[in-house]
Amino acid sequence: MRDIVNTEQAQAWNGPEGVHWARHQDRWNAVNEGFNEPLLDAAALTAHDRVLDLGCGSGQTTRLAALRAPQGHALGLDLSDPMLAEARARAAQEGIANASFTQGDAQVHPFGAGAFDAAISRYGVMFYADPEAAFTNVGRALRPGGRLAFVCPADAALNDWVAAMASLRDVLPVGDFGRPGLPGMFSLASPDRIREVLAAAGFTGITANQEQAYGTWGSGAGDVAEFLLGTGPGRHLMEQADASAGARARRVLTDHLRGFEAADGTVRLRSTCWLVTADRPADPAVGF
Length: 288
Description:
alpha/beta; 7 strands; 7-stranded mixed β-sheet
């Protein structure tokens, strides 16, 4: 990979984490797709727009953006080669010719100045080592008056999967991975931090509104427990457990998730995010 400075995340998303998300892309889309329509509506895409999808993963939001801009184009950017391979395959399978994908680091990727009308992201902007640098670079890639819209996790306590993992505190060293401001998933959980970063990057008209959606995590509490323990945070915890503690963790997590089972066994968990919008100033002399 060239032009990569966020090396820690690049290693993670080209290793087991990226493989996991690529392999389970349909399942992760079922978890998060409740935010697709709010995100794309907030981006206010038009038929001819050129759209940049940040941290596109396996490309569902890129493909949806391309469908909203049939005379335009959607480019998905991500660090993860395994997920990008799935994104390209799925776009080809669905016959979406105006979507493409490239591997790169938003902090330093050589976008063309003013090359995009809009930038979007569904849970793809929390992992920047230098978020101000990333959003400044994205701002330059937007035309004057261009729009940014993204969703990122809000307070960890408002996300049911975090509560599920927290149920393991007496078994595994869960720690405080959900605390706002720490690098990773909840780095932008504070709206004040969001505004600080985007304003420093030159954006204006910044809004952050809370949105909730219930995602389908699987069928049966046991199945969902295994899935959660197979994610990056889950694997990290289980690697620190012996066989006895691991078996107990599975039982505790399964018991916790039974409270979310529907009559047909489907497990749906609430996710809470900030739906963020911002603008590149229309005056090209302002910022960027």
